[in-house]
Amino acid sequence: MELLKQRIIKDGTEIGTEVVKVDSFLNHQLDIGLFMALGKEIYRRFGHLGINKILTIEASGIGIAAVTAIYFDLVPVVFAKKTQPNTMTEEFYGAPVKSFTKGTVSIARVSKKYLNENDKVLIIDDFLAHGEAAMGLASLVEQAGGTVCGIAAIIEKEFQGGSKKLRDAGYLVDSLAVITKVEDGKIYFKD
Ligand code: 5GP
Questions:
Q1: Is the distance from CB of 72 to CB of 122 less than 8 angstroms?
Q2: Does residue 12 have its Cβ closer than 6 Å to ligand 1?
Q3: Under a CB-based contact definition with an 8 Å cutoff, are residues 150 and 123 in contact?
Q4: Domain 2-189, what fold?
Q5: pLDDT grade, residue 191 (50/70/90)?
Q6: How far apart are alpha carbons 32 and 26 in whole angstroms?
Q7: What is the pLDDT of residues 11-28, one digit of tens each?
Q8: How does pLDDT run across 13-68, given as a tens digit for each residue?
Q9: Beta strands in the chain (DSSP E)
Q10: 101 lines ligand 1 (CB under 6 A)
Q11: Are 118 and 90 in contact (CB under 8 A)?
Q12: Fewest 10 Å CB contacts: which of 31, 55, 88, 184?
């Protein structure tokens, strides 16, 4: 998506060759006008699949998932929690997820009340790197007997292999901007 690519070129910075920082519009300050364009584009790509729920993971996926839901006829948005708060006393589905940014493993949790066998789910995340988060979220949907209709990433770093891993596992994956490499202070895109 050209608009997003241009925004990454304008405002994104790289940390070494592995991490892209887009705090000014996606991971700290949120550009809601941009989110609306991204949500509309996600609907264009996934809107024909009968999706009735959107699933993401805290924290950075929540904003974009919420705005995208507007274009999917206000379907519910559920976000997996990475820790078990005192308030989560009910039963939950859980899947281990290795954090790309911290390197630690946490259990992504969703209450059994919010996922079920009738769910046709679109998984959304801000970044797709090694595919750990998306794979964990897909597991939560499947534990509930629901269907993963697709996985949408805002920014994919193709060179880290997550999309290949997810496609090899049979999932439909589509990303709005695909980065092929980060080298010598420059971010390279597919197309
Ligand atoms: P994965 O699970 O696919 O390895 O990594 C995806 C998760 O790690 C996303 O939820 C995202 O929050 C974080 N992440 C991965 N790569 C980056 C990156 O380059 N920049 C930022 N800001 N977050 C990233």
A1: yes
A2: no
A3: yes
A4: Rossmann fold (3.40.50)
A5: confident
A6: 9
A7: 999 999 999 999 999 999
A8: 999 999 999 999 999 999 999 999 999 999 999 999 999 999 999 999 999 999 99
A9: 13-15, 19-21, 53-57, 77-80, 92-98, 105-111, 120-128, 147-157, 173-183, 186-189
A10: yes
A11: no
A12: 184
Protein residue whose Cα sits closest to atom 8 of ligand 1: 100
Could you tell me the end-to-end alpha-carbon distance of the chain, in angstroms, rounded to an integer? 10
What is the per-residue pLDDT across 86-129, written as a single tens digit (0 to 9) for each? 887 889 999 999 998 888 999 999 999 999 999 999 999 999 99
ipTM of the complex: 0.99
Phi, psi of 153 (to 5 degrees): -110, 145
Ligand 1 atom nearest residue 97's Cα? 2
In the numeric block, which tokens belong to residue 7?
Answer: 């925004």
Per-residue model confidence (pLDDT) at position 80? 98
Q: Which of 126, 140, 164 to mutate to test the pocket of ligand 1 (most atoms within 8 A of CB)?
A: 126
At residue 25, what are phi and psi to the nearest 5 degrees? -135, -15
Instruction: Name the pLDDT band for 171 (thresholds 50, 70, 90).
Output: very high
Q: How far is CA 145 from CA 112, 115, 139, in A?
A: 11, 8, 10
Contact between residue 35 and residue 63 where contact means Cβ atoms under 8 Å apart: yes
Q: What letter represents residue 86's amino acid?
A: N
- Residue 44: exposed, middle, or buried by beta-carbon count in 10 A (0-12, 13-18, 19+)? exposed
Report the length, in residues, of the chain: 191
SS3 (DSSP) at 177: strand
